[in-house]
């Protein structure tokens, strides 16, 4: 079966679920303040909050008393208190206190689901599947988030589509056409694909506009006249359920997925600019390196937002076109997308 016919037989990918047995990002750490925060991960409303020791917890976002959202509530010591009648729940999801419980009444024996949750590399990750597997599966590692040799920018966005449209956009480097002078790469040629049941890795030979080899080179991010096209490998990977790409040695970019529903996906795009080419960097004082990292934080956020804006117009149209005419065929020439769809199916089947 060739690439074209294979992908045409897979339109229903747009209705597939997710493999729940992975760590998904639900928010950035700094977005969780003192108040509980409600998030949605594949149609499951979840409330995350910190107790008075600062420890993070995640519970089903539903008060079992009257089914309202617990994320309207407040944290009182180690308990999450519902806004409506003040029932309080512990971190295991059990009702621990009812303010008007009569002396002859027992606490209601109601319990809501708790989720494994961790804070790591700038983000809050939730494991929505079989809790016993949460120690075996690791969240995607982003060591560059903290590493002093990397400048970090990120943006969070809501994609009005099934997650498959977003990952196909990210894996198809031929769509640089859309970004015109915003794109970092040019002339990609897909050379090979490595795939297994957990990932698809597509290797493109391409050209890059940027080369971060001198201190002033960072200015290329802002001044187009300083950019010069030169050959670089462009590697993009769907490491289910997230995406990682590198352009030469200077740039790494990741997209962390939070599929919300069949037609909505939250995601975080994170851009790392490497300073590893500056071989004297490591002898500079740590405080200075941290200062440079901090002052440069989000320097490329505007660029990321512009790229995302362009992509979202196309992805939303793809989703709407699918909803209006699910019978219409796409004509796909990029084999990486056939592999992406295969991986999505494999992962969903694993989850069942
Ligand atoms: S609905 Fe939550 S305490 Fe009543
Ligand atoms: Fe794009």
Describe it for me?
- The chain is globular.
- The protein is built from 6 helices and 17 strands.
- Helix 2 (163-171) runs antiparallel to helix 6 (335-351).
- The longest helix is centred in the C-terminal third of the chain and has 24 residues, at 301-324.
- The chain has 2 domains: 33-133, 3-layer Sandwich (Rieske Iron-sulfur Protein), CATH 2.102.10; 143-351, Naphthalene 1,2-dioxygenase Alpha Subunit, Chain A, domain 1 (Alpha-Beta Complex).
- The strands form 4 sheets. A 7-stranded antiparallel beta sheet has the order 11-17-16-15-14-13-12.
- It has 352 residues and is α+β, with helices and mostly antiparallel strands.
- Bound molecules: FE2/S2 (inorganic) cluster (FES) and fe (ii) ion.
- FE2/S2 (inorganic) cluster (FES) binds next to loops.
Question: Main attributes?
Answer:
Rieske Iron-sulfur Protein; 2 domains; about 30% strand; Naphthalene 1,2-dioxygenase Alpha Subunit, Chain A, domain 1; binds FE2/S2 (inorganic) cluster; four-stranded antiparallel sheet; about 20% helix; metal-binding; disordered N terminus; 6 helices; alpha+beta; iron-sulfur; about 350 residues; seven-stranded antiparallel sheet; 17 strands; binds fe (ii) ion; Cholesterol_7-desaturase
């Amino acid at each position: 079966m060739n690439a074209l016919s294979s992908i045409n037989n897979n339109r229903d990918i747009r209705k597939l679920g997710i493999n729940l047995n992975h760590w998904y990002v639900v928010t950035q750490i700094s977005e969780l303040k003192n108040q509980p925060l409600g998030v949605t991960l594949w149609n499951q409303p979840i409330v995350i909050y910190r107790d008075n020791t600062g420890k993070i917890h995640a519970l089903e976002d539903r008060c079992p008393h009257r089914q309202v959202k617990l994320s309207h509530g407040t944290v009182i010591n180690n308990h999450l208190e519902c806004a409506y009648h003040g029932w309080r729940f512990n971190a295991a999801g059990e009702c621990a206190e009812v303010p008007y419980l009569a002396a002859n009444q027992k606490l209601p024996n109601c319990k809501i689901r708790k989720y494994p949750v961790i804070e790591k590399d700038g983000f809050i990750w939730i494991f929505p599947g079989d809790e016993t597997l949460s120690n075996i599966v690791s969240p995607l590692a982003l060591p560059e988030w903290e590493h002093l040799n990397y400048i970090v920018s990120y943006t969070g966005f809501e994609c009005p589509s099934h997650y498959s449209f977003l990952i196909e956009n990210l894996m198809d480097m031929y769509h640089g056409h859309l970004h015109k002078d915003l794109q970092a790469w040019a002339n990609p040629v897909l050379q090979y694909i490595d795939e297994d049941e957990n990932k698809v890795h597509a290797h493109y030979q391409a050209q890059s506009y940027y080369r971060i080899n001198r201190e002033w080179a960072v200015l290329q991010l802002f001044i187009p006249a300083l950019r010069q096209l030169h050959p670089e490998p462009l590697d993009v990977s769907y490491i289910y359920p997230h995406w990682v790409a590198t352009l030469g040695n200077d740039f790494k970019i990741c997209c962390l997925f939070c599929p919300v529903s069949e037609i909505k996906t939250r995601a975080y795009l994170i851009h790392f600019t490497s300073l590893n080419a500056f071989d004297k960097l490591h002898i500079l004082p740590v405080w200075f390196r941290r200062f440079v990292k901090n002052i440069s934080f989000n320097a490329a956020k505007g660029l990321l937002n512009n790229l995302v804006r362009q992509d979202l117009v196309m992805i939303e149209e793809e989703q709407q076109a699918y909803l209006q005419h699910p019978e219409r065929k796409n004509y796909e020439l990029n084999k990486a997308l056939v592999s992406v769809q295969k991986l999505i199916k494999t992962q969903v089947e694993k989850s069942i």
